[in-house]
Amino acid sequence: MDFLGEPQVGRGVVERRFDLKVEDRLVPGIVWTPETAEATAPPRPLVLIGHGGTGHKRMEYVLALARRLVRHHGMAAVAIDGPGHGDRGGITDLSQVAEWWKESTTDEMIVDWKATLEAVQALPEVGEGPLGYWGLSMGTIFGLPFVAAEPRVRVAVLGLMGVMGATGDRLAADAARITCPVLFLQQLEDELIQRPAVAALFDALGTKDKRLHAKPGAHSAVPPEEFNVSQEFLASHLLT
Q1: Residue 11 confidence class, pLDDT cut points 50, 70, 90
Q2: Residues 6 or more apart from 181 whose CB is under 8 A from it?
Q3: 51: Cα separation from own chain's centroid
Q4: Reduced 3-state DSSP string for the chain
Q5: Could you tell me which residues are beta bridge partners of residue 158?
Q6: Burial class of 195 by CB neighbour count within 10 A (0 to 12, 13 to 18, 19+)
Q7: Are strands 13-22 and 2-10 parallel, antiparallel or unpaired?
Q8: 21 — phi, psi (to 5°)?
Q9: Cβ(113)–Cβ(47) under 8 Å?
Q10: pLDDT (tens digit, 9 = 90+) per residue, 167-206?
């Protein structure tokens, strides 16, 4: 893990940009940690945050969630650019995501997340504490298979995705392997993911501890209170 530039410190949060070499790929990311160890001492809980399609590691909602987890709960958080996104490419249209996805890309992203996890937990201010995952839309396309493949994940927030298109069979198969508690978010007027597809993915989740939050609005109109609920759901399972 190579840190780039000087740490950015504000309101109790230390933000550091890094690059991580994983096989033949360069994975750009950001890690957030508390400025002081007053809330919790290492090993501290860590939440991996996956951004949506056409987004990147510094999306407004990614920054907000990461900083709230650090400030309010003393956790650490990390986000990386998905393949073809942010500093790894120039995808800016959702149609490009559908055309570009391959199952091998999901497998590579699992490896990228695992390498990121190992690198961040090796930091002395983080350590090998409880692990959570948060990711909607494309963050679920890549994150759900990672959660299924990583038994250390204790809790996950997923959603804005369903059993449909090229990714559907893979997601359904991986969903059946998930055993940790899951909060699944849905937008009822989602113009991208139809309700039956969402229901099929939610039903496929193998965990007995799963809950579905459905709110009015379009795909990208997740209300602020759902981010608050996400934060508390993660904290309730990672801080006990």
Answers
A1: confident
A2: 154, 155, 156, 207, 209, 210, 233, 237
A3: 6
A4: CEEEEEEEEECCEEEEEEEEEECCEEEEEEEEEECCCCCCCCCCCEEEEECCCCCCCCCHHHHHHHHHHHHHHCCEEEEECCCCCHHHCCCCCHHHHHHHCCHHHHHHHHHHHHHHHHHHHCCCCCCCCCEEEEECCHHHHHHHHHHHHCCCEEEEEEECCCCCHHHHHHHHHHHCCCCCCEEEEEECCCCCCCHHHHHHHHHHCCCCCEEEEEECCCCCCCCHHHHHHHHHHHHHHHCC
A5: 184
A6: middle
A7: antiparallel
A8: -85, 120
A9: no
A10: 888 999 999 999 999 999 999 999 999 999 999 999 999 9
User: Do residues 151 and 237 lie in contact, with contact meaning Cβ atoms separated by under 8 Å?
Assistant: no
Inter-residue contact 184 to 214 (CB < 8 Å)? no
Which of 188, 130, 179 shows the shortest CA–CA distance to 159?
188
CB atoms inside a 10 Å sphere around CB 147? 30
Which region, left, alpha or beta, applies to residue 217 given φ > 0 means left and ψ of -120 to 50 means alpha?
left
Of 136, 110, 118, 121, give the one whose Cα is nearest residue 45.
121
Count of C-beta atoms within a 10 Å radius of residue 2 = 10
Residue keyed to tokens 């360069």: 26
Bridging pattern class, strands 131-135 and 210-215: unpaired
